[in-house]
Design brief:
single chain; about 575 residues; five-stranded antiparallel β-sheet; three-stranded antiparallel β-sheet; 16 helices; 19 strands; about 40% helix
Length: about 575
């Protein structure tokens, strides 16, 4: 499509897309009426071909436009009269500021755990599904797609895997959710309420083999093929999902269900930056050097003579003319300071609108970590907003995976949440000082701070927890007496019950010898007590070798005079 600008301005072409079409943040996706319930066969084909396909193609064109800008491949606005030098300069003027803005936030939204409410550790079953589906890698693609297009999807379906039973050693087959990120260019979802609905009503999905699936409200789907520009449907395939298994991720959404990403609102600013860069390159290429001129010189009469008179002047050359009327001069180069200042102003506007950190544009140098953290406060606020919105989608994916895997209690757990990697700017010394005081002064357990350490993964924290009591005095005593610590107890994978550790024969013999010695010492003590008891029966008391009674015997005690308080004299 070609757009013509009035007022004798030049005519421009923008590939096959109108460069002045507005795809701003309020641009609504095409509106499509929901099909009638139970639509099948020819009626469904008519709906797909006449109603849905045109809207799908329109939305793909809009998303393709956003993809070009969001990946640094923005189309070139060029004159219809082709000029090679200008075309090269215009291609050089394209700068990937939009991909940088998207990547800045996408790289900071890393999920490092999934926990139930009040639990300090990851939920093992759910986290296994996350890791088996490579969601640690897929989440980066989801982040970029959501910020580029404004929304994206994750499809969760059933799959079977073979694992080894640790108790029996045999291979067993179990159900495992299959999570796959899906581009909105390959997935067209219809909602009754696009803002509030948790799952779509209908979904047209394009598969990698270029076939399609038409997902129904009950979770079943109908295979669809496109041949000769026409969609044809097959027989319905049943599933147990109960709904189309697609979870929508949104970047920003309003109450009308309209979604937009980080690219849409700033396309005009990015185009202005490219225009300023192009103008500077034009000046740099054509007008950045002095032009020397001369008048009153004699010129040859023939073209050959004119060519011979042309000379290339060096820095040390001097121009001399015999005619007194001859004049020499120079035309100054065009200054580029204004273009550079305009470029910086456009970048500052771009950074302010996108809430980017100032150090990203080179505006902050040689500052302390606290000052840099304060300058990034608005960036953190934008990041927290994205984490809040996308964290809900991640939790919904985990609940849907639990439903597919048969973990019904986990599927109904709406308090479990993903945890995000800490990306705030702080030094390790500051962290150690702050959390060290929190642990010692406030009585917080030490293990509560381990998850907060920058750069430490959950697997490392789990290993620390497993060996936290290895050097504890109680553990040392148990190792000496029993031979095994509590952390060495095994677990039966089938029942989940603890398994007793293997018996240490050396420790068992030591325990037996200790028991025998203890029994002998007890027998000796009993015999000694019997002797003392026999002596007491004969009237003897300890400390009285004459057998006349001890000091507590009244016969051996003297009375006291009540008046003087002195002991009475002894009777001889």
């Amino acid at each position: 499509m070609t757009a013509v600008i009035a007022n004798n301005s030049p005519t421009y072409a923008y590939g096959n897309v109108n460069p002045f079409a507005h795809f701003g943040p309020l641009a609504e996706p095409p509106c499509v009426d929901l099909p009638a319930d139970g639509l099948q066969g020819p009626e469904l084909e008519k709906y797909l071909n006449k109603t849905l396909w045109a809207a799908f193609e329109q939305e793909k064109e809009r998303l393709h436009w956003l993809e070009l800008w969001g990946t640094g491949r923005q189309p070139e606005v060029r004159p219809l009269k082709r000029n090679t030098e200008r075309a090269v300069l215009q291609r050089m003027a394209r700068t990937s500021w939009l991909p940088l803005a998207v990547t800045t936030f996408a790289q900071q939204m890393i999920v490092d755990g999934y926990r139930k409410a009040g639990e300090p550790e990851n939920y093992a079953a759910a986290w296994e599904s996350w890791n088996r589906n490579k969601m640690g890698m897929q989440q980066l693609a989801i982040n970029r797609a959501t910020m580029n297009y404004g929304y994206s999807y994750v499809r969760v379906t059933d799959a079977k895997i073979e694992t080894k039973d640790q108790a029996t050693g045999r291979k067993v087959t179990k159900s495992m959710a299959l999570m796959r990120a899906t581009s909105p260019k390959d997935c067209f979802a219809l909602y009754s309420d696009p803002y509030f609905d948790e799952y779509p009503q209908y979904v047209l999905e394009r598969l990698p083999d270029r076939t399609f699936r038409w997902w129904l409200p009950d979770g079943n789907y109908i295979p669809v093929k496109r041949e000769k520009n026409k969609l044809t449907v097959g027989a319905e395939v049943g599933t147990t999902y109960g709904m189309p298994p697609f979870v929508r991720y949104v970047n920003q959404i309003d109450l009308h269900g309209r979604c937009w990403g980080d690219v849409e609102p700033v396309i005009d600013i990015a185009a202005r930056i490219d225009k300023t860069a192009f103008d500077r390159l034009m000046v740099q290429h054509f007008n950045s050097f002095k032009v020397r001129w001369a008048t009153g010189l004699e010129q040859a009469d023939t073209p050959e003579g004119v060519e011979q008179d042309k000379i290339r002047i060096g820095n040390e050359d001097i121009l001399i003319a015999s005619d007194v009327q001859a004049k020499f001069g120079t035309l100054d180069e065009t200054s580029m300071e204004g273009f550079i200042s305009a470029y910086k102003a456009d970048l500052e506007t771009f950074a302010a609108v996108m809430q980017l950190p100032p150090n990203l544009m080179g505006q902050v140098v040689n500052v302390a970590a606290d000052a840099l953290d304060g300058a990034r406060r608005q960036t953190y606020q934008r990041l927290f907003e994205k984490q809040t919105v996308m964290g809900e989608a991640h939790a919904q994916v985990m609940r849907l995976a639990a439903l597919i895997e048969g973990r019904d209690d986990d599927a109904d757990d709406f308090t479990a949440r993903v945890t995000w990697q800490d990306v705030e700017v702080r030094s390790l010394a500051q962290f150690a000082d702050a959390w060290g005081k929190i642990v010692t002064q406030l009585g917080v357990p030490k293990w509560a701070a381990w998850n907060k350490i920058p750069g430490v993964e959950q697997s490392e924290v789990d290993a620390w927890r497993e060996h936290v009591l290895d050097d504890d005095p109680t553990s040392k005593y148990l190792r000496e007496v029993v031979g095994k610590t509590i952390t060495d107890l095994g677990v039966d994978t089938a029942t989940g019950a603890p398994v007793a550790p293997p018996v240490n024969t050396e420790i068992a013999e030591l325990q037996q010898d200790t028991a025998l010695k203890t029994a002998k010492m007890g027998a000796d003590a009993t015999a000694a007590a019997a002797k003392v008891s026999a002596a007491a029966g004969r009237g003897a008391q300890p400390g009285n070798s004459n057998g006349k009674g001890g000091p507590n015997n009244p016969a051996n005690q003297r009375g006291t005079n009540n008046k003087t308080g002195q002991p009475n004299p002894t009777k001889s």
